[in-house]
Specification:
Elements lengths: L1 H17 L6 E7 L20 H15 L6 E5 L7 H5 L4 H6 L9 H11 L13 E4 L4 E4 L10 E5 L10 H6 L3 E6 L2 H15 L5 H21 L6 E4 L7
Parallel strand pairs: 1-5, 1-6, 2-5, 6-7
Antiparallel strand pairs: 3-4
Helix pairs in contact: 1-2, 7-8
């Protein structure tokens, strides 16, 4: 996927140079299916499934390198906007909410939308330090990021399953993005990746239990997003790398 990352980085830099100097370039990176943080400890900065974050973070590094080492580009994960477990407990059906953690309704959409609305303001009018949440794997809940978004961060990549969703208020967020990158993968490859990595992360005690959860939640989320995505500006195909 290296060639795809290189080409994407070039196009992001070109779009960045076309923006006024007091505006940020916003880039959404979404994909077919991702394992949610759920009740287990997987690294939400590298969620399994479509390979989305396999692209997002190398892409940030490549963009910054093309800009001469400037730290203008930053990647933020939508996972920080998961509702906490305590908030899930207060939902009408807390059992379903915990089981479906990772579905669109288990995210704090109003808070996420307010954050993006600040990003589209002229930098001179936005707060000089913009806080945002991250996901704490030890607590299995979101926490404030230790470092805020700064004026120097003029290219913001937001990676997450629902960043290109076109319904139920999410379309307002997707519409604020300058670029929308969709990371595609076939269903069976996504399923295999999620089951394997969920098992490695200890979310379930057996591959069979992992498969049950993936088939009953993650794959449905992926199909939902595929069917309700805003038109992407770029499509990247995620493939398994061949061993050397």
């Amino acid at each position: 996927m290296e060639a795809q990352i290189i080409q994407l980085a070039k196009e992001i830099v070109e779009a960045y140079h076309r923006k006024p100097t007091d505006r940020r370039l916003l880039v959404a990176i979404a994909g077919y299916v991702l394992a949610p943080p759920s009740e287990g400890p997987p690294d939400c900065s590298s969620p399994p499934g479509c390979g989305k974050s396999t692209i997002a973070y190398p892409l940030v590094s490549r963009v910054n390198a093309l800009l001469g080492g400037d730290e203008a580009a930053i990647c933020i994960s939508l996972d920080g906007w998961h509702y906490s477990r305590a908030e899930l407990d207060r939902m009408p059906d807390p059992v379903e909410a915990h089981w479906r953690r990772g579905a669109a309704f288990t995210f704090d959409l109003p808070s996420y939308r307010r954050f993006l609305q600040q990003l589209v303001l002229p930098i001179s009018e936005a707060p000089p330090k913009l806080p945002f949440p991250t996901f704490d794997h030890a607590l299995k809940d979101p926490l404030p990021s230790p470092t805020p978004l700064l004026p120097v961060h003029r290219i913001v990549l937001v990676e997450g399953l629902y960043t290109c969703l076109d319904i139920n208020g999410w379309e307002d967020c997707a519409g604020l993005m300058d670029l929308r990158i969709w990371v595609d993968v076939d269903r069976e490859t996504a399923r295999r990746r999620v089951i394997s990595r969920n098992f490695a992360a200890g979310i379930s005690e057996s591959l069979e239990k992992c498969a049950e959860r993936v088939d009953g939640n993650d794959m449905d989320n992926g199909e939902f997003v595929r069917s309700h995505r805003m038109q992407p500006t770029h499509v990247v195909v995620s493939v398994d790398e061949l061993p050397n």
